[in-house]
Amino acid sequence: MSHCHISGFRGLAAVLAAVAVIAFAAVPGSAQPVTPAVLVAAAALRDVSGTAEFVGRVKAVDKVDLRARETGYLGPRLFTEGEQVKADQTVFTLDPAPFEAVLAQRKAEVAAAQAALNLADLQARRGRELIKTKTIPQSELDLRESTLLKAQAALEQAKAAQQAAEVDLSYTQIKSPIAGRIGQALYSPGNLVGPNSGVLATVVKEDPIQVVFNVSQRQLLEARRDVPADQLGAIVARLRLADGSIYPEPGKIDFVGVQADPNTDSIPLRAVFPNPKGLLADGMSVRVVLEMGKPVQALIIPQAAIAQDQAGTYVFVVDAQNKANLRRVKVEMRRDGTAIVQDGLAAGDRVVVQGQARIRPGMTVAPSPAPPA
């Protein structure tokens, strides 16, 4: 190869190197690596109580099945399915015409009985005057007195029949005896219904609402050692719903069973919860979490901060210089998404809860506070 070719290659290499240097310098921030962003939360001291969890079933405080007491054709529906109804609100009607006719007949019978009574009373009073002058025999007066008594009884019987007819007519208005949410109507207007037709609709009182669950005798004895029997209502009850979320309203124990089930060795308990938004429905399956015993202070961190390797459990702690340091910890997991730190951290330590995969021990990070859980 000639000398000119060699010098030409060297010149081309120099040009390419210069271009590479210029291109690298043109990339913003290429002189030093990007600082990874992470979310951090401070380890905090909180009051925590011992907990126990049970399977429970939601039960309405009051539930009424509406039925027809008389036979008749169902009138227009006076409610919206699934909506709230008031106590004594009419929700169904039966055709009142046949019952009104019967009532009119009973009123006429009362009027006739009253007229017969008035006549019998008049004849009896006349008989008492005539007997004084012996114008009529004693047997005639006895007959008139007997007729008066029969007329009085006939009037009472007619009045009772009228009252029964009025009651029957009132049953054509089917009312809800309680305030609550009414369910699906099982019959459409125009159907012939009666006492044997079954349930027309069900009304459920949902606020407050009860949850029934069973605890073992051993668990109940442990709870009673920590909490006197007359203070069981002070135990805080919470609910875990089917999607894993915690029901926002706490409840209280209001009933402890007096007999144990010999088959399961358990005793029924009942807790009552506010239900202003109707989130809990009768028959729903939930998990009851009881907070028992006196609260004690414990160091709490989010479970999202915890990681594991072959050496055990650890977290990343961000120091004052924003350096991430690996810290071995001993923790106790809780069902609410937090963990109790038993060893390895102090109150105020900032632990990384998001972004751990992008950092290594000793790396400088850009921390931001994690949103509240």
Notable features of this structure?
373 residues, alpha+beta, conserved putative lor/sdh protein from methanococcus maripaludis s2 fold, Elongation Factor Tu (Ef-tu), domain 3, OB fold (Dihydrolipoamide Acetyltransferase, E2P), 4 domains, 6-stranded antiparallel beta barrel, 4 helices, 36% strand
Largest sheet: 6 strands, mixed
According to CATH, the homologous superfamily of the largest domain is: Efflux pump adaptor protein, beta barrel domain
| CATH architectural arrangement of the largest domain | Beta Barrel
CATH topology of the largest domain: Elongation Factor Tu (Ef-tu), domain 3
- Which percent bin holds the helix content? 25-40%
**How far apart are the first and last residues' alpha carbons, in Å?**
74 Å
Number of folding domains? 4
The low-confidence parts are 1-9, 11-30
Strand content: 35-45%
Based on CA atoms alone, the radius of gyration comes out at: 43 Å
Q: By helix and strand content, what is the structural category?
A: alpha+beta
Q: How many β-strand stretches?
A: 20
List SSEs in N-to-C order.
Answer: HEEEEEHHEEEEHEEEEEEEEEEE
Total of helices: 4
Could you say which overall geometry the principal axes of the C-alpha atoms support? Answer: elongated
Please state the average pLDDT score: 84
CATH class category name of the largest domain: Mainly Beta
